[in-house]
## 1
Amino acid sequence: SQVGRKLAANWKLAFTSIWRILLLLSVLGGFLLNWKFRIYRRMKDELPCLAAGSVGMSVGLVVALLFNDSGIEPASALAVFLFFTWFLLLLGWRSAAAEPRVLREAPAST
């Protein structure tokens, strides 16, 4: 059957392909970033279109993993894109928060 063949192909790739490591590390890294820094919540507030794209990519990741013959490969690629998007957002937000603020000089007293 077609479903059995797809499951067998995914199962074989899950244990023999380097993509499984990329998928695992990207998903764990994404969960860690979201848990520690609340990336998705901040992205949803400040960048709603990017948040919608992240949800779409997450759905695509699950669909690719479940319904594609070599589902682990496209799912891993999507997971890497999601992780790096979130990571780059975090770098931008963290560097903006770390920039020194310029204080106004007090007027000189005469």
## 2
Amino acid sequence: QQPGPARRDQRQQESEADRIGQIALEESYGGVRGVDDLFQVFSKLGNGKDSASLELYRSHPEIAARLGVLHKQARIHGWPQGSSVPLPTAFPAWIQSIQKTKVKPSSCSR
């Protein structure tokens, strides 16, 4: 089933946000390490059965496709990839809380 026009626009916006976020990550840290780790968390959360996670992932491009585009962009620009500093153990729960309560990102800590 193909997404409707509004959902396609949302997915295009998310793809553009991924691209810009990756550029910002590289410019801030000199590489794009840790992107795979982050998307693994997203993938696990996307398998949730609650309505917030289901709606979120319907409006976003598929994770494998997003990673493919980000890996290609990193290769084209010669940006270092791979693992980085591990995400905080509380990160998955923090992401879930944002989906449900719109918590401000600054509340995430190690």
## 3
Amino acid sequence: SLYVFDRLVLSELPTLHEHLGRMGVSPDLYAAKWFHALAMAPQVDAAVMDYFLLDGPAAVYSLGLALLSANEGSLLEISDRDQLVHILNNELPDAFAAPQELIDYASSVW
């Protein structure tokens, strides 16, 4: 659920969580799109599917946290809400060159 993801962001990335909150950006503005893409998109990479099958639903949260963590510094510098939402929805999911790179990062952090 998005509530669980929000609590994980608070726990693991408190500075970013505070910044997103100040900007009025909650996970329902960005994470729902990520999770839906991971679960439903036909182009989901086999590596992502394997990661999900091995780790279960926690894998989705881990990948979401990895996206935020890897880009935390640049996200903290954004002071325009619309720009922040745009980056979270359109640029952040492409931040890693390949799904395996994202999985490796997520596995090393969480």
